[in-house]
Design the sequence.
């Protein structure tokens, strides 16, 4: 896709979703890290509901590790995969206390070493908690990027690399939110609403459906 088309897409997204931000509620990098771990296969609304209670008492790694796996599992059960999430949150919290003095580290390399923390979670934390430019590729970003043609790839990592190449660094974090919001509201997985999409003039899926059907 040429640069002009990418610029047009970014302009339209910015105009359409000026308020796009992280939908998870958090008061510290640690809370965002835990919320992002909880958000796998779960809605942000559900996570916010669970954490509004959880963080009243357990909002630091030191406090979190006073819970057993079963106790934490009971508190986060409605987020799904609660046994695994509980185990990873506690292991990560222990590591934060032992290796980082209870703080969340600021680099991708250190973050992805933490149990249950992948690139996507690390990107979300880096960008939203520390203001480090990053583009986390979740299911929405992956789908919308491929359909638009703004970044094509068969894996989230490839799409992330393409997006970083095609989008100015100063817009990485905002673009991540724009693409999520667009995927949730218009370019939905099963039935994209191309008829009402402001990006249709620039979209490969819309303009060349014979080539791309995802
Ligand atoms: S035109 Fe259709 S496929 Fe393209 S971004 Fe819009 S909704 Fe998605």
Sequence:
């Amino acid at each position: 896709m040429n640069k002009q088309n990418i610029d047009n897409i970014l302009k339209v997204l910015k105009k359409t979703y000026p308020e796009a931000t992280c939908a998870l509620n958090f008061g510290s990098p640690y809370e965002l890290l835990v919320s992002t771990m909880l958000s796998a296969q779960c809605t942000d609304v559900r996570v916010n509901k669970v954490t509004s209670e959880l963080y009243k008492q357990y909002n630091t790694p030191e406090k979190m590790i006073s819970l057993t796996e079963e106790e934490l599992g009971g508190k986060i059960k409605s987020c799904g995969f609660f046994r695994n999430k509980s185990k990873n949150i506690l292991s990560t919290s222990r590591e934060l206390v032992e290796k980082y003095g209870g703080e969340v580290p600021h680099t991708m390399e250190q973050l992805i070493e933490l149990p249950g923390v992948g690139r996507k979670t690390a990107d979300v934390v880096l960008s939203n908690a520390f203001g480090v430019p990053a583009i986390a590729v979740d299911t929405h970003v992956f789908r919308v990027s491929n359909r638009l043609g703004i970044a094509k790839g068969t894996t989230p990592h490839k799409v992330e690399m393409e997006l970083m190449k095609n989008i100015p660094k100063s817009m990485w974090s905002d673009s991540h939110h724009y693409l999520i919001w667009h995927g949730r509201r218009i370019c939905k997985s099963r039935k994209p609403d191309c008829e009402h999409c402001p990006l249709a003039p620039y979209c490969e899926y819309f303009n060349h459906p014979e080539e791309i059907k995802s």
User: Anything to note?
Assistant: The two ends are 17 Å apart (CA to CA). The chain has a mean pLDDT of 95.
